[in-house]
Amino acid sequence: MTRHDQYNENVAGRANVEDTPELLAYYDDLKKKGAAALWTVANKIEPWEPRSQSVPMIWRYKDLREDVLRSVDLVTPEKAGRRVIYLDNPGRSDVAAAVGWIYAGLQVMHPGERASAHRHSASAIRFIMEGTGAYTVVDGHKMTLGANDFVLTPNGTWHEHAVASDGSPCIWQDGLDIPLVNALEANFYEVHPDLAQAVTHPVDDMTRTWGNAGLRPGTGAWSKGYSPMFKYEWAPTYEALSGLAETDGSPYDGILMHYMNPVTSGHVMGTLGASMQMLRPGERTRAHRHTGSFLYQVCKGSGHSVINGRRFDWTERDIFCVPSWAWHEHANASATEDACLFCLNDLPVMEKLGLYREEAFGDNGGHQPVHKP
Amino acid sequence: MTRHDQYNENVAGRANVEDTPELLAYYDDLKKKGAAALWTVANKIEPWEPRSQSVPMIWRYKDLREDVLRSVDLVTPEKAGRRVIYLDNPGRSDVAAAVGWIYAGLQVMHPGERASAHRHSASAIRFIMEGTGAYTVVDGHKMTLGANDFVLTPNGTWHEHAVASDGSPCIWQDGLDIPLVNALEANFYEVHPDLAQAVTHPVDDMTRTWGNAGLRPGTGAWSKGYSPMFKYEWAPTYEALSGLAETDGSPYDGILMHYMNPVTSGHVMGTLGASMQMLRPGERTRAHRHTGSFLYQVCKGSGHSVINGRRFDWTERDIFCVPSWAWHEHANASATEDACLFCLNDLPVMEKLGLYREEAFGDNGGHQPVHKP
Amino acid sequence: MTRHDQYNENVAGRANVEDTPELLAYYDDLKKKGAAALWTVANKIEPWEPRSQSVPMIWRYKDLREDVLRSVDLVTPEKAGRRVIYLDNPGRSDVAAAVGWIYAGLQVMHPGERASAHRHSASAIRFIMEGTGAYTVVDGHKMTLGANDFVLTPNGTWHEHAVASDGSPCIWQDGLDIPLVNALEANFYEVHPDLAQAVTHPVDDMTRTWGNAGLRPGTGAWSKGYSPMFKYEWAPTYEALSGLAETDGSPYDGILMHYMNPVTSGHVMGTLGASMQMLRPGERTRAHRHTGSFLYQVCKGSGHSVINGRRFDWTERDIFCVPSWAWHEHANASATEDACLFCLNDLPVMEKLGLYREEAFGDNGGHQPVHKP
Amino acid sequence: MTRHDQYNENVAGRANVEDTPELLAYYDDLKKKGAAALWTVANKIEPWEPRSQSVPMIWRYKDLREDVLRSVDLVTPEKAGRRVIYLDNPGRSDVAAAVGWIYAGLQVMHPGERASAHRHSASAIRFIMEGTGAYTVVDGHKMTLGANDFVLTPNGTWHEHAVASDGSPCIWQDGLDIPLVNALEANFYEVHPDLAQAVTHPVDDMTRTWGNAGLRPGTGAWSKGYSPMFKYEWAPTYEALSGLAETDGSPYDGILMHYMNPVTSGHVMGTLGASMQMLRPGERTRAHRHTGSFLYQVCKGSGHSVINGRRFDWTERDIFCVPSWAWHEHANASATEDACLFCLNDLPVMEKLGLYREEAFGDNGGHQPVHKP
């Protein structure tokens, strides 16, 4: 017989009702009517603080790269739809998420290949890890992409990825809110009627139009829920971070900049945010925690992060996650070179729904004790 | 051995890769590395359109009322925390939701009883179904409540419910976004240090201050993410609906008004919206469907709704749900009296995240064929 | 010969250049080139604080009413356009303003009369002072009006005023931003091609739709720069003020509410704001001053205001003005009855342009010394 | 005897009342009571369309430069406050404006000179015309400035201008909304207690922090009514315009970009906007007109503009104005070089107050007939 008092807590204001035969009969009766007694689950569904189902973990590029490349021989893009190896957090396998409600995968494409065009309610980014010649078409706008650049394919936009025939094999990280949009039961999917779209604007026109600091085009307006600057490049981002290297920055994040929608200065898309941060030579940040799910990719350098008391060493192209409300801190391993971390997150969701909260780690100079493995 | 090709679709642009021994070995290898092949789940996680896990259903008050009253004898408020029978949608039992990510329960309280004060990241409403003398205290503001009134206890506010000692036994419907806030791993819970709060403002002051059409108080400002008009009363709502009864209204909803935050004219809280609608004598609406989850309570009259082809007859105090993307239409059974439906929903979430979509039912004069039971 | 050093100030950081023959020749030379030396006017155009050109004054209804009524015999509405006596502040005669950039006039209309329909870039209100049967049509919406009600005829809307044939002679106060819009060189004027518009909506529909506290219509949206609640009535306004009579209110204004656009909770129109305030029995407020121009009309009771040290006694229907940055305080003459003041102002302009500033009068318990007349 | 019927128009809906002895006596009587008859001025204060008081004109740099330099010998900065020759539009001499409500002056400063620090409610820009070593300090932030750069000194900020001792004599154009803020009776002025402020941040930090396309700093927020990017430089602006040279641009303005507040993408300050536009080799725009006042400075190249039918030829550093509702079109004189025009305007005021309107010139292929001089 199922127990119904396993969540009891002996604390004033919390449920603490022991099962009795009479109550168990009552519970059975309620069940038949599509109902149940709150006090049997209240302490479970009203936890004192968030306990993420996601496991803090790292995916090392040296482990996965060969598998990703091997997929080229195993499946065709036509059969696979997209040739992607996705990051499958053990705590989130049921929803195919890397962390929280964020999906991520590594996709490989050879020169001359082009995925079929489609659109969906999920929002996506594509962050280039290696290779040349990658490009993406979004609603008729073509963007060329190099390493550490990323492109938006927002909610509802037709999009397709490709590699130019004079390029080299490309690997990139896809990041989407598919799990969230599924959970919210709002995902729609369409294959483009022609399986491909025409490029109807000059190459990189959206970045040329909207990617000028302090300048807004005199013609054209933009009121969609995502950034019109579809592509964000590495070179000016790194230059911007370097230009701030001598400022204090954040004790928890070093020098961090959020990629933004230039029209609103808000996040790049309605459900996904992104940032790039620099850990200066020798920099070790202090620990804090906050709500929201965070997926990091190492763009430059090496170092380690401590997440809920476990140490994860990382180097270029590794990917690791910080689940909601997990303590975390970062350290650059080099005393002479900076390290850079790209981060994909669901901060727009947390902020819009009024659920963002953060807290600093006070003890021990701001550093977590590290568990022995 | 687990199959990995059960989601295959033979459609251009969709995954369609058959299992082979080589691939199965590959999948095993990926699994060890915390990874998996997207094409094995792509068609599952990218559905053509939303398929809600919630079951359309109705909870009839005549079935539940006795059970609710009986809880008074079975458990004390001290032991139970709150004495609530919650609505347990069979498709959402794992998260204790009535529909989608919305929790709802029926709570009973006797004159002179007072629940302990607490606060949480979840947002809540309390909609009075029967009884007199109910009141709620929110951050020191006391609101008195009668039938069909409701009160907000927003995200982060200290709150407690009670019934005055000269009142009668009260039953109300609680509605919360607990399942959503848990899913987003952002729920915090605190019991008030004194288990009760002082009333520090004149009774009903927030409605007197903010509940005046077209008038804003000269002193005081409000920038919180929820309405300062904590209580919404039935009488002026019914009067407003009646005043519009001769306008066209909506073909899908009759005369519908959204309860709003008077400062922004947006929804009453950051994650939950509410509306009241009137079906005029003899009115039968046409079917449409949209994203978002909706929980109705019948405040006045009787009639029926058709949800995804099933007919649900309802009368006063019954509660029924419309899951995301389910076709639905309503009909008033009376040719002489109007019928009124209160509705709690997650429209703020859908709208803020850019996920709201709707569609009219085109065939058959806008009316669904009804399945035989 | 014109002096150019009359604004000199002997203060560090201020211009203090004495005329010399050489300089005067230089100034002459500049003048020919459409130029001049800043230091000759700097102290004039950069005053230490605002000095309003408007004179604080009162227009007593007992003095003006007969003149207003007499206009009926003197001119026809056809010849006059509108039969209005306007308030001509001696400091603002050049722009026909009552105070600052606000125009105001008293208009009279007999039963059965109807002014021709027109529209302009200026925004207007019409505040009823006496009579029955007045109504206004705004973009096809007809509003009926009684004493102390007011109606908006915003920037760009077709509008016309009339009195029903079964009404009585009506007098109302017009208030417009004509002087401002002229000064900004942005005023356009059109006579309606038919000289009258059809009423195309149910009477008072905009107030029935948008004038419900805490309720937003489910159909219809509103994004124009002015309130969709075209009419604001006296009865609910007075009731709202009375409901707050026991709160502290403002030390400078008693119980004051701003009329608001229910969609934004901002001011009723883009350039004009309005408020109603109650001075409780025996209430005497403290003095303060702020930028912006304010035109009061006494709706109920009697009392006095002290403006820049001059006392102005007022009774029902009197109109008085408070110029920008003028000290002012109010007192109710009655120990048993409340007094109510309607106020038309340009706060939207001050606030949008970042020019609002206020200051309390600190000395003498917050009360100005009153000059002997 | 003053006539009161000089504005009569014989048009239905307009005032058309002839003076009679009885009416003149009536007008006299009203005047004594601080009132007047609207119909005597209605047609004047409600014009059919705006008629600007400003005269379209050009200030040629070759005419003014010597005078500006000469001021160095004529007055000291200490005596003059600021050594500025201002542009005195003959139609706006009473308010010391160059056009509409915009003040502009040419200021000269020698190496090692530093103006005293002050602040005021007026907002200002400083646009560098020639010289090296210019810098400005705004609320403790120091900005270095070269030709065609400009800096903001917004409403309420402490600011001071200077030229480094190793620089060269500098001339720049000041642009302020002093006339507007005076007209709105909201101008306050303060001299800094020390006559100079300390530089409390790294040089150019605000541009380094906020002047990165598509990037928002992770620390620090900004909610003031003006741009945190205090300095806008010529080089990236010209690069941005060049990058769009092959797009269509605007038929009226060629390639035009508005300088923007990166936080809101709105105008740089609350009352003043600025733009830079490129006329491509051989480009001749079509005529249009709009409300608002516009002051142009030629940054590069030569050409001409036709304003209300008059042709104004311009070359580098010339300044010309386009009054409200004046027809205007521009032409680049060169078939091989582009020409660039900086423009200071009051668009924020027009837009916020709902007064912006524009109209294309339809006849003659969009080009005005040019009057013989």
Automatic annotation (TrEMBL), chains A, B, C, D:
Signal peptide: none annotated. InterPro entries: Cupin_2, GDO-like, RmlC-like_jellyroll, RmlC_Cupin_sf. GO terms for molecular function: dioxygenase activity. The keyword Oxidoreductase applies. Residues 106-172, 276-343 form the Cupin type-2 domain. CDD domains: cupin_GDO-like_C, cupin_GDO-like_N. It holds the Pfam family Cupin_2. It comes from the Bacteria. Keywords: Dioxygenase, Oxidoreductase. This is Gentisate 1,2-dioxygenase. It comes from Seohaeicola zhoushanensis. The lineage of its organism: Bacteria, Pseudomonadati, Pseudomonadota, Alphaproteobacteria, Rhodobacterales.
